[in-house]
Amino acid sequence: MADKAKLAKLLRALAQIVDSSSEEELEALQRSRISDLVTADRHSKKARRSTPSSANSPDSVDISGILDSMRYLSSRAAGVAFLERHELNKRYLEQIARRLDLPVLREDNTERLIQKIVEATIGPRLNSEAIRGEASSR
Question: Which partner for 92 in 83, 86, 88, 107 could form a disulfide, CB atoms 3.0-4.6 Å apart?
Answer without folding.
Answer: 88
